[in-house]
Predict the structure.
Amino acid sequence: MTQQLDIPVTGMTCASCVRRIEKALDKVGGVHAASVNLATEKARVIYDPASATPTQLKAAIERAGYGVRAMPATPTAPVAPAAVAPPGELTLPITGMTCASCVNRVEKALNKVGGVNAASVNLATEKATVRFDPAVANLSQLTAAVEKAGYAVGSLPVAATATDAPVADAVDERDRERQHEIDSLRTKSLTSLAIGLLMMALMYIPLGIDMLLIAPVLLIAASVVQFWAGATFYRAAWAAAKHGGTNMNTLVAIGTSVAYAYSAFVTLWPSLAAQWGFPFHLYYETAVIVIALILMGRWLEARAKKQTGAAIKALMGLQAKTARVIRNGLEQDVPIASVQAGDLVRVRPGEKVPVDGIVTEGRSALDESMLTGESLPVEKTAGDQVIGATLNKTGSFVFRATKVGRDTALAQIVRLVEDAQGSKAPMQRMADTISGYFVPVVLGLAVLNFAIWLLFGPSLIFALTTTIAVLIIACPCALGLATPTAIMVGTGKAAENGVLIRGGEALEQARRITAIVLDKTGTLTRGKPAVTQIIAEGELSEDELLRLAAAAEIGSEHPLGEAIIAQAKQQGLDLPIAREFASITGKGITASVAGRRLALGNRALMQQLNVELNGLGERADMLARDGATPMFVAADGQAAGIIAVADTLKPESREAVAQLKALGLDVWMLTGDTRATAEAIAREAGIDRVIAEVLPEQKAAQVKALQAQGNVVAMVGDGINDAPALAQADLGIAIGTGTDVAMAASDITLIGGDLRNIVTAIALSRKTVSAIKQGLFWAFAYNILLIPVAMGALYPLFGVLLDPVLAAAAMAMSSVSVVTNALRLRGFTRPASAAAILHPSIGERVREYAYLGGIALIALMVGAGALYFAQPSMSDTPMQPGMEMPRESQRTP
């Protein structure tokens, strides 16, 4: 006899974790099946208690590298919600991070805190998202762990259970901090560069001044730069060193310190240096220019990173600042934070809707482009929903506030975008793993390089030069920035186009799908019935037939009746009063209208009333084959006509299906309707593959069947009754209305419900992943190619030696190029067709090639500079005090 056990698992971050845990559990003897759910963070195990025990299952999970929270008391009992404390979540702004190795250190420090289930650090947003058990860990412990690792926590974090305080204040505060950092980097980098250039002029231009006289002046100037502008490197390196760690600042601090210290030694003690055999070579300007260029790179990088958060800032800027509230019959302007649910709010032409609500009086047209991406205004009247931050174009209206503060659609969208921007794509995890070993490896290479050239090279100066170049040129920053910056820009751009992407994994997965399943009702169709055709028979006209039928249906609450009433109102028909209304279950209604006895319903009702259809039956069959529901109308016992009602196709559905097909995807329609109705809608939409007569609980199984055929499946549904199928699919895409975006249990939410946005999401996914791959390629290629060059690998063959100054320039440009490459996504526009995705325009190709050409040009400049500065002669004759130093030996070997 088997038992079922639900085990709460900690430490899972992606689908690969799910597979790893499932494999580990399957290997335990006695386990019949193991299924792990990433969303609920639980493993459901069916096992034989005679062969396996809960302790063995827990041990298997822990051996796989994950943790287990409190085990349920009995195997057959479901895990009670109260048995496990609900996990808390905090977002901590981290200061002092400069490269991917910093990310690794902070994550490790946070994960060591008891009660922490998962910690994820994003270098681009400079934030750490921590999931933890509030009963075990708290904010003070998390902050202490970050500080112990050598970093600092910024202003108060925003918790997942934050109050209604406006998010804009936190955004503005972070902007001010970032701007202060940018200004500081600008000042230090430009000042250092000016001092470095002046030093080079003194050292290279023949002024006829003894270098021993100039050296003390250079020492003073270099000291200012080294310990003022370069203080940031020392502080960060020391903070890491205190805890036995290293980072990129360690490399820069050691590299520049070696150059500075050697120059200072031969300047202050020239006689002792000569006795020890140290050549009188000065590297002051090398240390200064290296610091200047690295700080300049960080300045440009910080400016670029600030732009990656433009989407969040733009979304926050949409919010109205005040609202005109009606209280006690008086209208008054109040701050938006003071608006409460239930308040009546007036919106005048040209004003923004302050919060979400329902119109109570008046009518207008609203620009909802900020929410849906559609530029056409939407008519609003009493009973319609309005969304905060949309723009009132014409009339004045009053609405009742239903959602305020953090519950509004805009606040939900901002949170979703922030979460997505802070997430990690699977591609990034490889870079994070490598960066964790990067700095120690580079330090080891630098020591090895110095030892080899000191023993077998031309001189001590040669060994110093190559060692400094190795330390300076190694750049883990680019590795850490390639993925998060692209995800930040990509998810922000998606939000601007009415597409909410849950995270980096969904963004990466969208480009892989091979089949897409579209739910019919509410996805391909409008989701509510509408009159599609009116057939009048006898003396009544079509308008008169509709007028009488709508009047009879006023007493009905059936959706088909509501569709007839809506059509009559749309045509401006006057509806008389209906009397003697009666509803006949499963068949239709009867009523007296304008002196006529009306019957409205299906064929069974007509048969019950003995109404002769006179050929209308065949026409009704034709309408049914086309997907409509025919409703017979009889007046005074005689057949008067047919009103056909159907859930009509959205105007853009056919175009969206054509675009999805053009992308090479297999398009399926999934519905619970009859085969005839389903095929009629599918024909209209241009879909060839139909799965009909499927119950809601069977939809997930249909998706699973497609996956079993080797397809990577995306499921598109309304996010509520399609939730199991959305969860089963490789990519779940929910149709959202704007107010229920937080409810959609999906990877992607289409805010406006426009299916063409699926094509937008796929296009953006492909562009973003392309930018990530390019960034990672340049980051890896840069380090793999240039570190050996810096070590002097080309010197024995070609006499080429990479100058440390050029190494600093190349290192700075590597980070800047990766960030600017991601920023190119800001120019993304919604593709007009699938062809625009498959075959980019000439302009796009020109921009792409221009960027890649710029990178190649930088690489060529570095190579040319290396050749120019290469010195085949490596004389290191010790200088005696008072001797004139040869000009060519003043700074380089």
